[in-house]
């Protein structure tokens, strides 16, 4: 059962990522009508998967034991979402023009997914988001299609970083 819940969560992630990427590239916007329901969908599916594994008596099978915090599987997922949301919120406070609040809200959703897999995935997904965004910015500058003050939608890079961390790193 846990396997199918994770598959459903991954399919939802893929659909959400495509929709948000298209909207953010076109309009520099991550709409609440997509991001807010994603908390519930991802939270229920991932928590269900973590609990299904825990109830089957196979806690050792949890990915990197990342979904377990203080012996409770769901707390790892919630902690991942809260930690990533807080990190992006602090970035927004430090430099508001550089980070939209839509990115902050999306970070919480991505933290749920990455938190299910473990803290290493959270760090890797965040690092990859900034790496991908930075490389794209360098390309835009080198191609003379923008300047240092050009606005670049960051949501697609956040989604790509999270997806890369989920797909490439061992669970």
TrEMBL record:
Keywords: Membrane, Methyltransferase, Transferase, Transmembrane, Transmembrane helix
This protein's name: Leader peptidase (Prepilin peptidase) / N-methyltransferase
Start and end residues of each Prepilin type IV endopeptidase peptidase domain: 12-137
Origin: domain of life: Bacteria
Name of one Pfam family that matches: Peptidase_A24
GO molecular function, a single term: aspartic-type endopeptidase activity
Gene Ontology BP, a term: methylation
Family in the record: Belongs to the peptidase A24 family.
Transmembrane segments: 41-60, 67-91, 111-139, 151-169
GO cellular component: a single term: plasma membrane
Keyword Transmembrane helix: yes
């Amino acid at each position: 059962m846990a396997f199918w819940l994770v598959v459903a969560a991954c399919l939802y992630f893929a659909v959400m990522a495509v929709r948000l990427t298209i909207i953010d590239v076109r309009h520099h916007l991550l709409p609440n009508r997509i991001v807010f329901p994603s908390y519930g969908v991802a939270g229920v599916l991932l928590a269900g998967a973590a609990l299904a594994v825990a109830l089957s008596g196979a806690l050792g099978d949890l990915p990197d034991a990342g979904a377990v915090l203080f012996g409770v599987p769901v707390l790892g997922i919630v902690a991942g979402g809260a930690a990533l949301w807080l990190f992006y919120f602090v970035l927004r406070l430090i430099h508001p023009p550089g980070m939209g609040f839509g990115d902050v809200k999306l970070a919480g959703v991505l933290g749920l997914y990455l938190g299910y897999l473990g803290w290493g995935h959270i760090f890797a997904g965040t690092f990859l988001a900034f790496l991908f965004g930075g490389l794209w910015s360098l390309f835009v500058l080198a191609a003379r299609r923008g300047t240092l003050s050009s606005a670049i939608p960051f949501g697609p890079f956040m989604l790509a970083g999270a997806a890369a961390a989920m797909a490439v790193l061992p669970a």
